[in-house]
Amino acid sequence: MLICTGQTMASRIQNKRNVTNARGTGRTVPPAQQQFQMGLFGGSAGGGPMSDTKAKNVLKEAVDAVVNSFAKHTHGYGRVNVVEALQEFWQMKASRGAELKNGALVVYESVPASSPPYVCFVTLPGGSCFASFQNCPTKAEARRSAAKIALMNSVFNEHPSRKISDEFIEKAVTDAKSSFKGGPDDDHNPSTSIGAFRFMLDSNKGKSMLEFQELMTVFQLLHWNGSLKAMRERQCSRQEVLSHYSHRALDDDMRSQMALDWISREQESSGAIMRELEVSDQEIEGARLAGRELRFPKEKKDILMLACSQMGPI
Question: How far apart are the C-alpha atoms of 309 and 216, rounded to whole Å?
Answer without folding.
Answer: 27
